[in-house]
Amino acid sequence: MVWLAAAVLAVLATDALHTRLPPSGGASRQMGFVPDPDLAKVLSLGFGAVLADFYWLQAIQAAGGDVRITPELGDHLGRLIDLVTTLNPRVDHPYRFAAIWMTASEQNVRTANRLLARGIEYHPDEWRNYFYLGFNHFFYLLENDRAAEWLDRASRLPGAPRYLPRLAARLKSESAEIEVAAVFLQEMLNTSQDDVAKEGYRAALDEIEVEQSARLLDGARARFQDRNGRDLRTVEELVAGESAVLRTLPAAEPLALPSALRRGSTWVLDPVSDRIVSTYYGKRYRLHVGESDRQRAEGWAEERRIRERVQGMEGSRGETRHEPSNHDR
Amino acid sequence: MSHPITTDDSREIVRVDAIVKDFRPGLGLRAKRVLHEVSFAVREGEIYGFVGPNGAGKTTTLKILMGLIRPTSGNATILDCDVTETGFREHIGFLPENPYFYSFLTAEEILRFYARLSGVGGRDRDRRVQALIELVGLGDARRERLSTYSKGMLQRVGIAQALIHDPKVVFLDEPMSGLDPIGRKDIRDIILRLKSEGKTVFMNTHILNDVEMICDRVAIIVKGRIRHEGPIREFMNEEAMRSDIVLAHLAPEVAEQLGAKFSARVQTVGEQVEVQVMDGQVRDLLKSALEAGAEVLSLSPNRISLERIFLEAVEQGEQADGSSAAERGAPAC
Amino acid sequence: MLNSGSRIWPIATNTVREAVRHRLLYTLLFFAVTMIGFSVLIASLSYVEGERIIQDVGLASIRLFSVGIAIFVGIGLIHGEVERRTIYTILAKPVTRSEFLLGKFLGLLLTVWLQLCLMAIAFVAVSVLVGAGLDLGYVAAMLLVGVELMVIVAVATLFSSFTTPMLAAFFTLGIYALGHLSRDLYSLGQASDVPAVKQAATLLYRALPDLESFNLSTQAVHGVAISGAEVGWASLYGVAYSIALLILASFIFHRRDLE
Ligand SMILES: Nc1ncnc2c1ncn2[C@@H]1O[C@H](COP(=O)(O)OP(=O)(O)OP(=O)(O)O)[C@@H](O)[C@H]1O
Ligand SMILES: [Mg+2]
């Protein structure tokens, strides 16, 4: 009896003391200490592979879930993947994991590129690492020449898609950026094993789809000016009245968008930029790194949350991707 | 002590020559001399008693003979081989002090193990194992693990393993320790049987009774020095040949008469008379005493002599130790 | 005249019988098998390369726990015999100290190899269950784990032959760690401008067991081609190193007073 009382007392006292300790915050759990890769490699005593797995799981935890990929988190992921690939350079996916997630700042992208280069060093026959490197140069850093170089090299490797040489050629001509981006993104979407990243690619493809429509409207606007000698006052003028140049306006929202998410967006003339924009995005698509890119990342995260909620409500409603239809008259 | 001068010219099986052993208790501490130029020899076919008080150096000497520790100086041979060699051990058996064995084995298993180590092969091995288990009286426990054995039973296993390969020379460190009276008798019988088979036995002990009963030669070691060495009968001097008789109902004057007649020492203690007489006179004295109406209360052979020598040797050792302080600190080499 | 084998073998088999009674051995074996099984759960946290993670964790558990067994059973190997004085009756038989040492070494080596086999079976079972690839590379990796264990058992035997289990554990763990570091120490030393440091690093590198040369687990998991020559040379090196250690152990043990 005495022992029981003593035991209960001891447990209660311990618990009380425990609750007084500062709890480990969510932030510190998300971005824990990452040891120096070279030191860790030395001290791993031949257990590098398993340590690499451990930190790889940490990287997945850090990037997964409803987190915003900030440049800080990108740095953290960079440190983790650097550690993982130093401890065991023979890993495969983590190199591209870095490329997928480290996009929130130019520095993130450059670090990811360095990691991809290490991946290429250890997997010289893996075309996807070259492809991702090309994509980063093109999509985030606007370095099309270098992107083309990497695509060239990727195209010579076994398993590489047959269209890569054409893609590389188009990159060199510096034209049709968004078509190239669409091809890239479609390829990443097809080959990615990462569901969350796939959502991101889909969102970017959606945006490109709307951008393509917007560019179509730009063309129509020019014809309108030619024909009427004046600019549009509203976008609707393109399809209304005698001066119409189009039969219908293209959708101002991505076609794949679930109906629950549709906002009935329309095309408007943005008074500041004087460009035709979809109210869905409120701006025109641009290949760019920096602030807007961070916003895009935030947008992706937001989108993803909504989609998940919607999918939860609607059950397993299949998401099919429609080919953009031609609205040109 | 000088090398013993042997009168009979039988072969010397064990020769120990001026062995010195220093122990170093620890780094930097002064070495402690445990054996001071110990020399003796054991001849073929004899039972040799190595006697001394606790801490005298008996076990240390035996460990040197078994090659377990090395002497600081001096050398020792067994069967004319240096004790650090291995080959001759086919012919020797060893029972350590308080023996301990792999406790997860049974008596049979451990004996088979030792038999294999000694090169006893094939069918011979099983036969020897069974014979020795019977010899030391462990028949009932032969298939039980040694972890369940009592101290005395382990001692018996120790004796069995020492004899498993039918050695020519047997070294026993306190073979009687931990044994009940029956066990002691059994071991005495075994030792005597070994002698009758022509084996040589070297035995450490401080039980003088056993020494007197079975040993042919004795060395007394005190504080690392041999104080006496020689055949047991040398210790059995005149005094040793006497017996003590305790009588009752004997008039003091008759007792005096008897004492004078048989040149016996007589002492009256109350109603009783204690008589000490030469062994040869016992019969006649008893006859006379009985005729005089006395009653014999006890008759015991006088066994104090070895003990007295032993005690004297120890005393001597203490004095020597006290006087020669120079000897205590051995050179740290 | 008897041959040594007939004396070494009984000592070795008794050592196996004694070692398999060690409770620690089963604890470590249990942990190893649990970890190998648990690797499936760990791997499920990753959406890619799960099979690789399972095998990484499995092989690491095998290497860690088998070395644990080798060290913690090995450190008391000789010392225990002297302490409990079981060695007295053995050395009084026509057994040389070298034979005794070799018997103890072989006994422990057989024990840890047996454990290694059990762990390997668990590893193969899990690999087959999750459909992870298995090929000759894994056999080579396991073989060299066995060779590494031989070196570690020899190191433990050496230290156990003249020091207490505590110190022997300390030294053996130290050698294990340094043995895995020796290549890094070497390259670190070569980067130095001081010639003495360079020489010391080279000396250390050559004196310490190069345990990384027995580590093929990552190569096996990643399907990197492993040449038979590589395995052969590493095994030979391990055997030679163990023999050298045992000779040193014998040399020390022969000169020791067994009190
Ligand atoms: N390893 C050692 N280190 C230091 N001193 C030792 C060591 N072993 C024995 N001694 C000392 O040597 C002396 C002789 O010891 P030994 O065991 O030979 O005595 P013994 O005659 O066998 O005594 P016992 O009758 O009690 O068995 C003792 O004083 C003991 O303290
Ligand atoms: Mg003793």
Structure commentary:
The complex is a heterotrimer of chains A (329), B (333) and C (259). Chain A has 329 residues and is mainly α. Helix content of chain A is 60%, strand content 2%. Among the domains of chain A are: 12-123, no CATH class; 194-311, no CATH class. Chain A has helices spanning 2-20, 26-30, 37-43, 48-63, 71-87, 93-101, 106-122, 127-139, 144-155, 164-172, 177-191, 195-228, 291-314; strands spanning 267-270, 275-278. Chain A has a two-stranded antiparallel ribbon. The termini of chain A are far apart. In chain B, strand 9 and strand 10 form a beta hairpin. The two termini of chain B are 23 Å apart. Residues 1-7 and 323-333 of chain B have low confidence and may be disordered. With 259 residues, chain C is mainly alpha-helical. The two termini of chain C are 29 Å apart. Bound molecules: adenosine-5'-triphosphate and magnesium ion.
Overview in brief:
With 329 residues, chain A is mainly alpha-helical. Chain A has helices spanning 2-20, 26-30, 37-43, 48-63, 71-87, 93-101, 106-122, 127-139, 144-155, 164-172, 177-191, 195-228, 291-314; strands at 267-270, 275-278. The B-C interface holds B 23, 63, 66-70, 86-90, 92-94, 96, 98-102, 104-105, 113-114, 116-119, 158, 161-162, 165, 171 and C 1-2, 6-7, 10-11, 14, 17-18, 21, 84-86, 88-96, 255, 257-259.
Number of strands of chain B: 14
Task: Report the largest inter-chain contact.
Answer: B-C, 34 and 26 residues
Helix content of chain B: 25-40%
Strand order of the largest sheet of chain A: 1-2
**What's the total helix number of chain A?**
13
Quick one: overall form of chain B? globular
Morphology of chain A: flat
Q: What's the average pLDDT of chain B?
A: 84
Strand content of chain B: 25-35%
The H/E string of chain A reads HHHHHHHHHHHHEEH
Task: List key phrases describing it.
heterotrimer; B: 333 residues; alpha/beta; 6-stranded mixed β-sheet; 4-stranded antiparallel β-sheet; 10 helices; 34% helix; disordered C terminus; C: 259 residues; mainly alpha; globular; binds adenosine-5'-triphosphate
Strand-helix topology:
The complex is a heterotrimer of chains A (329), B (333) and C (259).
Chain A: H1 2-20, H2 26-30, H3 37-43, H4 48-63, H5 71-87, H6 93-101, H7 106-122, H8 127-139, H9 144-155, H10 164-172, H11 177-191, H12 195-228, E1 267-270, E2 275-278, H13 291-314
Antiparallel strand pairs in A: 1-2
Helix pairs in contact in A: 3-5, 4-5, 5-6, 5-7, 6-7, 6-8, 7-8, 8-9, 9-10, 11-12, 12-13
Chain B: E1 12-23, E2 32-43, E3 47-51, H1 58-65, E4 73-78, E5 81-82, E6 92-95, H2 107-117, H3 122-135, H4 151-163, E7 169-173, H5 181-196, E8 200-205, H6 208-214, E9 217-222, E10 225-231, H7 232-235, E11 242-248, H8 252-261, E12 265-269, E13 272-278, H9 282-291, E14 295-301, H10 304-323
Parallel strand pairs in B: 3-8, 3-9, 6-7, 7-8
Antiparallel strand pairs in B: 1-2, 1-4, 4-5, 9-10, 11-13, 11-14, 12-13
Chain C: H1 5-19, H2 23-43, H3 50-74, H4 77-83, H5 86-91, H6 97-130, H7 136-160, H8 165-190, H9 195-207, H10 217-221, H11 228-254
The complex binds adenosine-5'-triphosphate and magnesium ion.
The site of magnesium ion (MG) has 4 residues of chain B, from helix 1.
